[in-house]
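User: Batch of two.

Assistant: Item 1 of 2:
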Amino acid sequence: MIIDTLANLEFYKGLNEQLYKGLKFLKETDVAALPVGRYEIDGDTVFALVQAYETHLPEECRWEAHYKYTDIQYVVEGSERMGWKTLDGVVKAEDCPEDDVYFFESDGDHFVLHAGQFAVFTPQDAHRPGMAVDGPAPIKKIVVKVAM
């Protein structure tokens, strides 16, 4: 898992070409003006999902992981609490391979992402997005999906 801001974009240039494409899209696009929806960056290899919703109470949020996509979760407006943990010892509660996701019950570490920050979750990272910081509040977030 990585937590950072787009000010450090060039650091990621040599790490992974597809990951860099996703981060570059976030930096070079007026993301605040994008309406909710899907935006292709490089076909199904790299694409962005613009989301706008109210954050939820922790008990309403599920732990998840993905099979083939890495998530870049970038907060455009608002703040969101997220969870992270390794996949060691997790037992799937629900499996949706056709949607590249599975869910499970777990405990893990939590942190807050504020506007202008992103977190990267690889298929080896469990994550729990969508949690409210102090109480449910509106958020605009972009999840860039990067095939690994």
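Item 2 of 2:
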Amino acid sequence: MQIHKAVFNTSAPDLESCPDSELREFAFIGRSNVGKSSLINMLTNQRKPLADVSKTPGRTQLINFFTINDKWSLVDLPGYGYAKVSGQKRNRFNEFVSDYLLNREKLTCVFILVDSRLSPQTLDLEFTRWLMESEIPFVLLFTKADKMKPGAVQRNIDAFHDAMSEWCDGLPRTYVTSATKAQGKKDILNFIGQALEATF
């Protein structure tokens, strides 16, 4: 699949404000400063970047919807880890994000972005475990793979998978990505295309 058209739709502060749409949704989320905006811009390949790339962690504070090829929605979710939250927020990320993930009927898959340069981080593992327990489909995207040697990247991925194996049977689909080199772009878009063709 190729992206020929990508248009910003709207931003929503809560589930009730999300657009009324029949389009299937693919959401992207990760710890702040994981490279989410750069990855979204790499996937959509638009002359004017869709997502704002900032050096300030946690800048995305709303649920942002983009209509892709008039056929599906790319959803940019706030990053977790730097966002201001209260002690009652589920798994340390904003309540309205968990509300969206749990209750949005058109949500098809969540792409969890993980920094490939780092050893397994508690927040990433906690969020991954919560998605599994909530039976929400997800794919792991290990970002910034161009910043380290392939062997070091693979060791961090293996360590993450090992940590997950303590509480899950089988491992999720995983892609290695680089926004700079467009690594993983074809795999991610092909996965989305296949998911769109599949029936519920």
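The beta strands are 6-12, 24-30, 63-68, 72-76, 107-115, 138-143, 174-176.
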